[in-house]
Each structure stands twice: as structure tokens, then as C-alpha cells.
Design brief:
Elements: E1 4-13, H1 18-28, E2 33-40, E3 46-55, H2 57-69, E4 73-78, E5 84-95, H3 99-111, E6 115-119, E7 124-130, H4 132-145, E8 148-160
Antiparallel strand pairs: 1-3, 1-4, 2-3, 5-7, 5-8, 6-7
Length: about 170
């Protein structure tokens, strides 16, 4: 069976413990989450989770069935093959750099449409809101060019497309 990245959007009751129950379901079954984001919706009593998981078809169907059985879950949507707009936030701090390297960081930031959000005498902090693949490319390039970096990723959020343009 082929393993592939899959995406689920969940509408859940915005209550204490719901996130723990959902993530506990994945942990209890040894399903590995590679991304989980959660935030309130236009209705403050409802939250939306975007969950990324790597699994085969059978396991993914089991995950969706188990999520649908949870009382706090209002709706489960499989976004895997759906046209969506999906982005993740990424911060990269590049440390211990000189003026010449700082110029290179600025050039890389420009090419990747990253914002320089903070700067020190020997460090730069970049921020992007991009597709996971583009953020992966940026991280790989920064890692190849600079010795000391810190990376923080926020996980993907997704919404169904209105038109047919995809991810």
C-alpha cells in the first residue's frame, strides 16, 4: 500500500480538551501527524483544525471514521484531492553572520518573497507565508549557506478553493 500525505479539515466544538482528544486519537493508534493547526472560525463556539498525516488508504479511512465518531467533531472534510489554498508560516533566524552574508540573506529573502521582520548586528529573522514545498526549498538553501540557524514552522492551514485553481 502506498503511503502519501493527506489532509483533513475538522470543524469541532471550541471547548477545553477537544484538541487533546483529537491528537490523542492519533497517538493512541500510532498515526503520525506531520502538521496540526487549529483556530476559531467566524463562529467563536467552533474551531477548525487542519491536520496533515502520512498514511495509506485503509488507515486514512479508519482515521476519518474514528474522527466522525467523536461527539465534539461537527464535520470531517478530506482535503487530500480537493482544490485548496494552503499555506504555512515559517520563521528562520540566521545567526552569527557578517555584512556580506546579511546581503546574501536579503537577496534570498527577496527571491523567496520572505519578509525580513527583525535584524540585529549579526543576525536576521525571516518570515514567510508560503506552500510547504517552497518553505522546504528555502530551509534547504539557508541550511546549505549558513552554519547557525533556528527554524520554526507553524503548520499548514487550508481552505477549499472557490475556483478550480489548486494548492
Amino acid at each position: 500500500m502506498s503511503m502519501k500525505n493527506r489532509w483533513i479539515a475538522l470543524y469541532v466544538e471550541n471547548e477545553v480538551g477537544v484538541l487533546a482528544k483529537v491528537s490523542g486519537l492519533f497517538a493512541g493508534k500510532s498515526y503520525n501527524l506531520h502538521s496540526l493547526t487549529v483556530g476559531t472560525t467566524e463562529d467563536e463556539t467552533v474551531s477548525r483544525m487542519t491536520i496533515g498525516v502520512t498514511s495509506d488508504d485503509i488507515t486514512f479511512e479508519q482515521i476519518k471514521k474514528q474522527l466522525n465518531r467523536m461527539v465534539e467533531v461537527i464535520k470531517v472534510m478530506d482535503l487530500t484531492d480537493t482544490s485548496t489554498h494552503m499555506k504555512e508560516i515559517l520563521y528562520i533566524k540566521i545567526l552569527n553572520i557578517n555584512a556580506e552574508e546579511r546581503t546574501e540573506v536579503f537577496q534570498i529573502a527577496q527571491v523567496f518573497s520572505a519578509d525580513v521582520v527583525d535584524i540585529g548586528t549579526d543576525s536576521v529573522l525571516l518570515e514567510t507565508k508560503a506552500k510547504e514545498s517552497k518553505n522546504n526549498e528555502l530551509i534547504a538553501l539557508i541550511k546549505s549557506r549558513f552554519k547557525r540557524i533556528n527554524v520554526v514552522r507553524g503548520g499548514a492551514v487550508a481552505i477549499e478553493a472557490i475556483s478550480t485553481k489548486s494548492r
